[in-house]
Amino acid sequence: MLDLVRTVRMFILFANIKEHNVERVDNGLYVSVDYTGTLQNGEIFDSSQNNQPLEVQIGVGQLIKGFERELMGMVLNEKKSFTLSPEDAYGQRDESLTRDFARADFPAELEPKVGMTIGLQTAEGRRMPALITHLDDDKLSVDLNHPLAGEALTFDIEVVGISQTPTQAKSGCGCGSNCGCH
């Protein structure tokens, strides 16, 4: 009987030690997250379903600030649902972020259409999405706001990995959307 009591006490001690040593999401760590993002109307705008989880390094600006804030302190296999205001996601729409370009500035093989998203490159080499909002024979008007600007975003997430080093090859922009903005 004494051996059984010792075994139970050792098990409890081990369980308590293990519980207190659980690694939590913190700056500098690489975190893998399964997620689904939805708009207020319930439309899914992005998801890791049928893909590998999103892996990011925390604290280096790879995520929208609200998403990263919600990840902080989570533990492996923890699930969470949260909604981000536009300010904590991609910001409010800025109507001054529209530009007109001469049609001649674009490759001849491009067949632009209103509603089409094209990729533009800044002078610094950064890629950004641009939505064609107007088109005529001479010019093309684009909206440079992020496609999710002005939207409240709801996420259902699960932390599926926490590591000191990356576990996946780099891909995408890490903005939480398959927008191709980088």
- Spans of at least 5 consecutive residues whose pLDDT stays below 50 are 12-22, 173-182
Percent helix, as a range, is 10-25%
Global mean pLDDT: 85
Kindly identify the CATH topology of the largest domain.
Answer: Chitinase A, domain 3
How far apart lie the N and C ends? 65 Å
Level-2 CATH architecture of the largest domain: Roll
Q: Count of helices? A: 2
What is Rg?
22 Å
Structural class: alpha+beta
The shape, in one word, is elongated
Could you spell the SSE succession in H and E letters? HEEEHEEEEEE
Describe the structure.
The chain is α+β, with helices and mostly antiparallel strands. The protein folds into two domains: 22-90 and 148-163, Roll (Chitinase A, domain 3); 98-143, Thrombin, subunit H. It has two helices and nine strands, in the order αβββαββββββ. The chain has helices at residues 2-20, 65-71; strands at 30-38, 44-47, 54-57, 79-84, 98-102, 117-121, 127-135, 139-143, 153-163. The strands form two sheets. Strands 1, 2, 3, 4 and 9 form a five-stranded antiparallel sheet that branches. It has a four-stranded antiparallel sheet with strand order 5-8-7-6, with no helix packed on it. Strand 1 and strand 2 form a beta hairpin.
